[in-house]
Design a protein that fits this description.
Layout lengths: L21 H22 L6 H14 L3 E5 L2 H11 L7 E5 L4 H9 L3 E5 L10 H7 L4 E7 L8 H11 L2 E5 L7 E2 L2 E2 L6 E5 L13 E5 L2 H11 L23 H32 L13 E2 L5 E4 L3 H10 L27 H7 L2 E4 L7 H20 L8
Parallel strand pairs: 2-3, 2-4, 4-5, 5-8
Antiparallel strand pairs: 1-9, 6-7, 6-10, 8-9, 11-12
The protein binds pyridoxal-5'-phosphate.
Length: about 400
């Protein structure tokens, strides 16, 4: 199988450091999954095949929940969960301001109102305090986002939601295998939503997602909604309610089972790479994310903060180092969501200007980390010293 490795260098040229390398993950698992692919293709059970139930069992087991329901993507996982819980018109759902827009968009698509909470300056995650501040008499739920791969203080959030009588949901799209005191992401909330977008820590060969929950009736409702409103065991044209088409398909389930077998070693490698970044970037003026002692951070992203971010980023780009920005604009300031904003959220707003995500993927080499750190330290210094950039390309 041909694989593109963007970090490979043609002779005589400096290699670039890609932001991620999904093809390397595919190449690693392909020998193990190719027979299953062929068998599925020849059997023809592309929708609803046995591979889906197999992956759902494996994923629920991995997360420590009773049930997993495969769906088409992480955004649908969130919207279907809200709808299945009866959350919609007239209800408010709290989401952190610093997240991918899908978290808030799912609330709007479910017919409810997103209310934005500020985040911790150290972890950039929602806190029990910022959650409590955002609660109103209309609040039905909060979606805690395990941004970058780290869970917020889940027991603290549960204490607040328990006292207020609201539902805790998890957006674990970036946190496959993350833990709080040894308990897995997905096992704290009424339900947790995962994306298996290809670049995620557990990624499919296209779009895919899942909801995990230990409430069987909630799992059933989500499955019904995701399958044109057909309840479990119903005939093909027997519809219990208006649903949608948001199913995980058999080929994606095969890819996910294949990759799940490699998720733990890949996560360990991410953690090692993060430790190397921390060692090499100490004392350079680059602000690294805090990690709570109870948290197992799985480093979907290694997001730092630097002054003069756009210039630093341009200088890194000029040296062939790809970076990302997660996220340049907090949700409450995004044009389609501004109407829901209730005031400034200073931590999320101030942090946004400095956020810079560095390359991070399981097949990254130590040498690549070293090159990113050398270049970043120089770029930060150049920006601190003046407007001229010595390496911008
Ligand atoms: C935090 C977060 N929530 C939700 C989503 C949406 O997932 P999907 O792209 O699978 O719809 C993503 C994916 O990028 C995400 O990072």
């Amino acid at each position: 199988m041909h694989t593109a490795h963007p970090g490979n260098k043609p002779p005589g040229q400096a290699a670039c450091v890609p932001f991620t390398d999904v093809a390397a993950m595919t190449a690693e698992i392909w020998p193990a999954v190719q027979q299953d692919y062929l068998a599925c293709l020849l059997a023809g059970g592309y929708i609803g095949g046995p591979e889906i139930a197999a992956f759902e069992r494996e994923w629920a087991g991995y997360c420590g929940t009773g049930h997993a329901v495969g769906v088409a993507n992480g955004t649908d996982a969130l919207q279907l969960t809200l709808t299945a819980l009866g959350i919609g018109r007239g209800d408010e759902v709290i989401v952190p301001a610093n997240t991918f827009i899908a978290t808030a968009a799912a609330v709007v698509r479910a017919g409810a109102v997103p209310r934005f909470a500020d985040v911790s300056d150290g972890t950039l995650l929602i806190t029990p305090h910022t959650l409590a501040e955002a609660i109103t008499p209309r609040t039905r739920a909060v979606i805690a986002v395990h941004l970058f791969g780290q869970m917020p203080d889940m027991p603290g959030l549960l204490a607040v939601t328990g006292a207020a009588g609201i539902t805790l949901l998890e957006d674990a799209a970036q946190a496959h295998g993350a833990e709080w005191d040894g308990r897995r992401a997905g096992s704290f909330g009424e339900a947790a939503c995962f994306s298996f977008y290809p670049g995620k820590n557990l990624g499919a060969f296209g779009d895919a997602g899942a909801v995990v929950t230990s409430r069987p009736e909630l799992a059933d409702q989500i499955r019904t909604l995701a399958n044109h409103g057909r309840s479990r065991g119903a005939a093909h044209y027997e519809h219990e309610r208006i649903g949608t088409n948001s199913r995980l398909d058999s080929l994606q389930a095969i890819a996910l089972s294949g990759k799940l077998a490699r998720l733990d070693p890949w996560t360990e490698r991410r953690i090692e790479l993060a430790a190397r970044y921390r060692r090499l970037l100490g004392g350079t003026g680059v602000r690294m994310p805090d990690v709570a002692p109870s948290a197992r951070h799985v480093y979907h992203l290694f997001t730092v903060r630097v002054p003069g971010r756009d210039r630093v980023r341009a200088e890194l780009g000029g040296r062939g180092i790809q970076t990302g920005v997660h996220y340049p604009v907090p949700c409450h300031l995004q044009p389609p969501l501004r109407r829901f904003a209730t005031g400034p959220l200073p931590v999320a707003e101030q942090a946004a200007a400095g956020l810079l995500s560095l390359p991070m993927f399981p097949h990254m080499t130590d040498d690549q980390v070293d090159r990113v750190c050398d270049a970043l330290a120089e770029a930060v210094q150049d920006v601190a010293e003046g407007p001229e950039l010595s390496h911008a390309g």
